[in-house]
Amino acid sequence: SGGFTAESVRHDFPILHRTVNGHPLVWLDNAATTQKPRQVIEALTAYYGAANSNIHRGAHTMAREATEAYEAGRAAVAGLLGAPGPETVVFVRGTTEAINLVAQSWGRASLGPGDDILVPVLEHHSDIVPWQMVAKETRARLVPVPLTPDGAIDQDAYADLLSARTRLVAISHASNVLGTVPPVKEMTALAHRYGARVLVDGAQAVAHFPVDVRDLDADFYAFSGHKLFAPTGIGALYAKPELLAAMAPWQGGGNMIESVEFGETTFAAVPHRMEAGTGHISGVVGLLAAVNWLTSLDRGAVAAYEDGLMAYAHEALAAVPGLELIGSAPDRIAVLTFTLAGHDPATVADWLDADGIAIRAGHHCAQPALTHYGLESAARASLALYNTSEEVDQLVASLLRLQQSA
Ligand code: PMP
């Protein structure tokens, strides 16, 4: 397996060695956020212990060092995404802010009455609500793309909904609630035939498989650092160079200008024009460490390991009486959303928590996707590269005890 084992990477994660409620932690809430390797934690300590500075080029040594670290982070993100260059990467707080940036900057300028924005029913609220808001403002139409019963995007319906009116298609590269990995490259090519732009929400994808924005031909690609073993509060937006160059700044302030007079301001070049104010410098330092850590692994071996663990977990969970798994599209990341007969999802999560097992219960910020299955709430176990089949066994054993206790 190219030298990759879950056991070897577990050594990098101090938190995985704590106990919760007297039991060794079993962290199965990776779709909400991933844990951080010591390489990331140490990079943050080193930055604040020895390198903290704001990033003004040329002011002093530490400012230059911080600037270099910040721009090294940008180059690392460009590398991670297969972007043509660092100038196509804008730092943001996370996926949510990236999508709002595109909606407010590109969307306000490009959408109008009679235009369609196509959004699959399985999207996270952060890939629905910003479009809804800008659609209201511009009198464009937000059009849901339906799902098939197994939780895939209905490709026939998608092809039918596309038209000369379509300005934008916004799709997740992997669903946080059903795990579905849609054929983004094919969907993008189809959208482009109608002249539409495509935004890809990569929040759930980047930690699980390599991404290549040029191969996808995505116009925009967004992700959050905290789902990629990096700190919270930092993420990135990739935009095609010609799109980014034409986009108006969405926030004004320091760091994004060339010169300011009361009559007129000229803006800095992209990507800086899109980054008003002091950025999350330590966040970028942590993100750089996380990207370096992740890309030092054999990613093909990691993806194969996760697929194997997913298949194992799927089979093991399906054997629990009364347990129903939701979503069974053939291409999926390791997200297992389920209901358990006789117990509401919050009770299931509480029960597992008492055994030190962290899962999420609720609507997963994807209410339309759950509504598609007639549900308001579900339990979700989401796996990462450091999870093991023993942990899956513990999840299953705990669920079986819950069933027996009823
Ligand atoms: N999209 C998807 C598919 C997600 O899973 C998430 C996080 N659950 C988001 C967007 C939003 O990410 P963030 O809260 O980090 O901005």
TrEMBL record:
Keyword Transferase: yes
Domain of life: Bacteria
EC class: transferase
Keyword ATP-binding appears in the UniProt entry: no
GO MF, one annotated term: cysteine desulfurase activity
Aminotransferase class V domain ranges (all copies): 26-395
Keyword annotations: Pyridoxal phosphate, Transferase
SUPFAM superfamilies: PLP-dependent transferases (SSF53383)
Pfam families xrefs: Aminotran_5 (PF00266)
E.C. designation(s): 2.8.1.7
Cofactor(s) demanded: pyridoxal 5'-phosphate
Reactions catalysed: (sulfur carrier)-H + L-cysteine = (sulfur carrier)-SH + L-alanine
Family: Belongs to the class-V pyridoxal-phosphate-dependent aminotransferase family. Csd subfamily.
PANTHER family on file: CYSTEINE DESULFURASE, CYSTEINE DESULFURASE 1, CHLOROPLASTIC
Name under which the protein is recorded: cysteine desulfurase
UniProt organism field: Streptomyces lanatus
